[in-house]
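We examine the record.
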Amino acid sequence: MLASSILLLGGCETYRPEPLEPIAAVDRVAAVRVATPLTADAVTLADALGWLREHGPELREAIAAWRTAHERAAVATPWSDPVLTLGPQLGFGSVAAGRELTGIAGLALAIPLGDRRAAADALDRARAETLRIDALLTARSLHLDLRGHLARLALGRTRREQLAGFATDAARGLDILRRAVELGRGTALDLALVELETARAEAAVLEVDASLQDEEATLARLTGVAATRFAHLAPSLAPSLPDAIPDAAALRAALVRSHPELVRRRCDHELAERRLRLEIERQYPDLTLGPTYQPDPGSDIDVVTIGVGLQIPLFARNRKEIAAARAARAEARERYDTAASRALAELDAALAAIERTRSRSRTFAERILPVAERHAELAQRAVAAGEADALRALEIQRSARLLRAEALQARLDELDAWLRLERAVGQRFVDLGDGGVDEMTPPAPLRESSDAEVERRALGPFDASDGTAHEGHDREPAAAGAQEDER
């Protein structure tokens, strides 16, 4: 028996160290950041999504966390190891014929009476599925963030070109005014005002350059590549905003289905259900079988005993852990309610921002800009015909440039409002016009569910593809937990 135990110990795992090599790791990451391929001379949405899927640091961390839980869930909870007892037995007292020193051997095996092993496996699978869903939600959130920053970068570069044109026009106007002053048609004060305006235009270009560098740095952080990879964007990445605001009921349904925090809270509630079930199963004791062999000291009789042990659940009954698990389930439900309150408030704020910025942007596009363009063109024609003062014409053109800049800023504000709605709901609304590739296929390891029940509860009650209700989702999750409590 001792020899068989030694043989079984030989099947245990051995430790093999894998030390971290910081310098080699940093060199490897640095090489990846600059070696990522491009499908064309300029970055497309497909390029950026591919980099995010393959090299995005946050997504890689989420997948690594899921793999750890997945490996644990892949190993079923085993039975308790049997306990082998070996030792000497010494007989003493009155003199008797036979042996005084003998050996004793015993084996004890615990047999669970409840479904503790199944409940533990279910909890491990739920943890793995929760982390899988968390990785998918991370991928979805990063996808939305990536699109938003690409849209801001594309529109920001358009604004930069516009402001650079304003600075060039201001410098040209400054030269004209200087010649006018030399001819006695202007004053030094007029020249000083135009010089200040030119400096302000150049400063605005520098400010936009700084904001564009921040956007490039953020994109580099999201995708795990160098910021220089975003030096040139494909023209197709120009954002197109929706013509109409979606229906409030449809937005609420999309929010329930896709909002990352709400999905995570549903996962937390399902985990709390599984933990409560496990703690309830742990109150049932194990049945212990313990056969023992021992020779009787002082005689030639060998004794074999088959003992059956059972811990009587009289006092403990795992009450503390059950109470804590039941309270944790109630806390998870409360956290879902509070998360829903925050999500609905953010949805309302996003819709209000869209209404406000959309009205302002349309006012500029439909009323203000046409008037500004018409007056700027009239001033230019009057100066060319010698019918207007050059300084007055420059003032009109400067006002028109300022209105164009404000109109583009209004469009940027509307874009930010729509991106805010995307984050509030968890779905796309802004069209980046990149040939229908605005989808990020989840990494291959995340495409298969570890626990269909957790997936159904977390991603329900609406189907992820068409938004229709699943059958069987009318029953509250608490009903299942109540049945477990009654056991």
Notes: The chain has twelve helices and four strands. Residues 461-487 have pLDDT under 50 and may be disordered.
